[in-house]
Amino acid sequence: MADSNDTAPRHGLGAQLWGAVKDALIDEDPVAAARRAKLQGTRTPADKPAAPDAAPAAMSPMAQALMAQVLSKATAYTALTDKLAPLEAIVLDERTRYQAAYALIKSSRSVEQVVQAIAMQHVPALEAEAARFGAQLEDKERQEIGARSQELQTLTTHIEAAAQQVATLRADTAARIQQIEAAVARDRERQAQLTQEIDGKRHELAGVQRQFDAAAKSVAQALDAAKATVLRHLG
């Protein structure tokens, strides 16, 4: 298979990755899956030969979709993997399998070319997919979070304005209460003063009344005496 940077991708990544995101969240942990597979392997019947190499942890659906996209362009490495795939069920030993697959392409591909294809083509492809996926996430964020964020900001502004209004009203009310209390204090002081003055005036008038009563009594007595004198001398 010839190297080409123009070969069409084998699988589109967009819908696959977004579908894989949800699956990846509930997918079994690869380490746990490998451990479970290993435990199941210990229960294999004795007459069944065990694979000499431990199987790698299974990829999540997202990782599988991403790997398919990263390897979607034909390179020296994909030429090797194309030959490896049919041998996986036949040659169990990994080293033997790689050597057999490479034997099929070594006339047109060197080991150095295979390694360079991974480093110079597939790793950059992964980085490009990571950047593209990041842009897709930003689009999703704008679509699904943007409106909510705007509403949240509006509500936050309203809440802050209402809190400020409440604080202002409380300050105004406190100032008004202080004014009323000061007026009440002045009124109480005047009230006490007036009460004292009224009591003083009443006491003063009561004294005058007593003096008048005494004077009136004296005059009445004098008149009675005058009347008696007139009658005694002239009557």
From TrEMBL:
Which residue spans adopt a coiled-coil conformation according to this UniProt entry?
123-211
Q: Which key words tag this protein in UniProt?
A: Coiled coil
- Organism of this sequence: Scleromatobacter humisilvae
This protein's name: Uncharacterized protein
